[in-house]
Design goal:
This protein is 51% helix and 18% strand. The protein is of the alpha/beta class. The chain has two domains: 26 residues; 138 residues, Glutaredoxin. α4 packs across α7.
C-alpha cells in the first residue's frame, strides 16, 4: 500500500494495534518478574500438610526404610520452635543424602492449618509435613508417655522405628548435628 492509498483511519488502526500489542507484552513481562506475583504463585501450590494421629505417625515411621528419622514436634506460637526451624531444615538438607528423614509435626490446632502452611512455605519447606489430628493429651501420651507436652520436642528413631533418643527444648544446628551423627556413625540407627 502506498502512502497515497493509506487513509488516516487505517494508519490510526495500525498504531492502535501496535500500542495494544506492546502493552500486552509489557504487562506480561512485568507479571513474570514482579516479586508480588511470584509470592502469590507460591501459595497456589501450598506446602503439603497432612493430618496425623500418634498411631498414623508411628505407622509412617515403621514403614520408612530410612536409617534415621528425626521427628520434631513444634507450633507456630512457640518462639523456641520457630527459632530452631532453620537449624532443622539446614540439618535435613545436609544429611538427607545420608538417609536422614525429617518429620515436622505441628501441634497447632487443626483450624490453624493455613498459618502452619504459610509459616512452612516462608521457611522453604518442600516436603510433606504433619499437623496433629488428635486431642493434645491423647497425642502426647501415645507418642511418649514420659513427654510432658513441652515444645519443641524432638525424637530420633532408627531404621526399625525404635526411639533412640527424646528431648524437650530447642537445639542449635551443632547440637542437632551431634545427635544425628551419634546414631549415623555408631551404627545404632541400623
Amino acid at each position: 500500500m502506498t502512502q497515497e492509498n493509506a487513509s488516516p483511519a487505517k494508519c490510526g488502526k495500525r498504531i492502535w494495534w501496535v500500542v495494544l500489542v506492546l502493552g500486552i507484552i509489557s504487562g506480561i513481562g512485568f507479571f513474570l518478574v514482579s516479586p508480588r506475583v511470584n509470592q502469590i504463585s507460591r501459595f497456589d501450590l501450598p506446602v503439603s500438610v497432612e493430618f496425623v494421629t500418634a498411631s498414623s505417625l508411628r505407622n509412617k515411621l515403621l514403614n520408612s526404610a530410612a536409617p534415621l528419622k528425626l521427628v520434631n514436634m513444634w507450633a507456630t506460637w512457640c518462639a523456641p520452635c520457630v527459632a530452631e526451624m532453620p537449624h532443622l531444615l539446614k540439618l535435613y538438607k545436609n544429611y538427607r543424602d545420608r538417609g536422614v528423614e525429617l518429620y515436622l509435626v505441628s501441634m497447632d490446632l487443626k483450624e490453624e492449618v493455613r498459618n502452619v502452611e504459610k509459616f512452612l512455605d516462608d521457611q522453604g519447606v518442600d516436603f510433606v509435613t504433619y499437623l496433629k489430628d488428635q486431642k493434645d493429651n491423647d497425642f502426647i501420651n501415645e507418642v511418649n508417655p514420659d513427654w510432658s507436652g513441652g515444645l519443641p520436642a524432638s525424637m530420633i528413631f532408627d531404621a526399625k522405628g525404635e526411639m533412640k533418643n527424646f528431648w524437650i527444648g530447642d537445639l542449635s544446628y551443632e547440637d542437632f548435628e551431634k545427635e544425628v551423627l551419634r546414631y549415623l556413625e555408631s551404627g545404632k540407627s541400623q
